[in-house]
Amino acid sequence: MSDSLNHIREKPFYKLLLGRTVMSLVSILAIVILYIILMSMVDHPAFPFHIIIVTAALGKTLVITMTTLKGLSKLIKVCHSLERLLWVFGLIIIISIFSFATDYACLYQFSHSTFEGVPEYSISYLYNLYHFFYFSVITFSTVGYGDIIPTSDIARFVVMLEIFLSFFIIVFALANIKKIHING
User: Fold this and answer.
1) How far is CA 123 from CA 34, 89, 97, in A?
2) Can you tell me the distance from the alpha carbon of 22 to that of 135, in angstroms, rounded to the nearest whole number?
3) Which uninterrupted H or E stretch holds 12?
4) Mean pLDDT, to the nearest integer, of 128-149?
5) What does the pLDDT look like over 58-86, one tens digit per residue?
6) What's the average model confidence in pLDDT over 156-178?
7) Is this model's pTM higher than 0.85 or not?
8) For residue 85, what are the CA distances in angstroms to 26, 91, 112, 126?
9) Which helix (H) or strand (E) holds 149?
10) Where are the alpha helices (DSSP H) in the chain?
């Protein structure tokens, strides 16, 4: 067994997990905080806000796919329990869903014509975030009820990023299920 795997086995699991996912978590948290600050300060129609949202969504997707899942593949080789790995994948899925919900809410704040089906009475950012969290869960799970529909090209692109990420996470989990070493 290589020295790097022996070094990984000596550290507690949660310390390893935090070390492997901290960059992604901090990046996504920073993007969410930036969104919330910009939502209250920026005149949306006068600012190219949609370009910032698409760039941040693309960057977030790349960070999750490249760093987090790469680090998790190393953890899978020395995993201590299936339950912990399920928690890890659940955490990644929840973070992904919530971060895309903020993207959708920001796009909707930029222009109400980016999505159809959002209730007219939902004028506050937090209430819109609730609706787009629902939409993000439906999109991530690939159910697609059709009650909220992206109508702009930018909104469709961000939706495609979420679908790509959901497929990538599910395929990654299924492809690595046989590699999990469970200590009995």
Assistant:
1) 20, 33, 21
2) 27
3) none
4) 89
5) 887 887 777 666 767 666 666 656 676 77
6) 83
7) no
8) 20, 10, 39, 31
9) strand 149-150
10) 3-10, 13-41, 49-63, 69-77, 82-110, 125-140, 153-175
Question: CA 59, CA 35: separation in Å to the nearest integer?
Answer: 14
Amino acid at 114: T
Alpha-carbon gap, residue 149 to 62, rounded angstroms: 24
- Contact indicator for 28, 60 with CB cutoff of 8 Å: yes
Cβ–Cβ under 8 Å, residues 35 and 100? no
Region of residue 142 (left: phi > 0; alpha: psi -120 to 50; beta: else):
left
Residues 184 and 81 sit within 8 Å (Cβ to Cβ): no
Under DSSP, is residue 43 helix (H, G, I), strand (E, B) or coil? coil
For residue 141, what are its two tokens?
Answer: 């799970």
Are the C-beta atoms of residues 131 and 118 closer than 8 Å to each other? yes
